[in-house]
Model the fold of this input.
Amino acid sequence: MKLPVYLYGHPVLRKISEPIAPDFEGLKTLIDDMYDAMYKSEGVGLAAPQIGLNIRLVVIDADPVSETFPDCAGRKLTLINPVIEVLDGDAVKRTEGCLSLPGISEDVARVEHIRLSWVDADFNPHTEEISGFLARIVQHECDHLEGKLYIDHISAIRRQLIRGKLNNIVSGKTRVDYPAKYAPRRR
Ligand code: NI
Done:
C-alpha cells in the first residue's frame, strides 16, 4: 500500500505515540510500507506519526548519506518502542530536514552519543551505543514519537524567518514531489 507522508500542520504530528504490543496486527506489512514510503520520498528515516499513526515505530536507512558520514554505511534500523539515553551532553549543530517539512532545512543542536534500546520487527530486544550522524537521525525520528519536530529546537528568530514557508505547508501551497497529505483545512 502506498502511504502518504503527513505534512506540517497535521495534528497527528503533534501527538504522543503509544507503545506497540507484540500482537499488533499487520505490523510487518506496515513496516514494509513505511520503508517504501521513505525510499520513495528519498528520506533516511520515517516515524509512524508521519504516515498518520501515533504508534512508537521508526524506520531508518542511513546508507544514502554514507558518502558524507561513513559510519552510516549499511545502517538500516527498524525501531519499535525505542528508548534513548544521552551519553554525551555536548550538543553539535548540523543541518536537518524532515519529510513532513518540505522545502525547509535548519541547523539543529543535538548530542553526538546516545545509548539506544529497542525491539525489532520480531520483538527481539537490542541495545547499542550510537554516535555521529546516525545518533542524530535516531534522535530526530524518536522526537516524532513525542509529537516533536526539529523546528522546535531552533531559535525563535530562525522560526520567525521560516514562518512564511511553514504557513505555505499548512495552507497546502507547498509543492511536494512524493505522496503527501496536507493538514485538514481550518474554517
Ligand atoms: Ni522528520
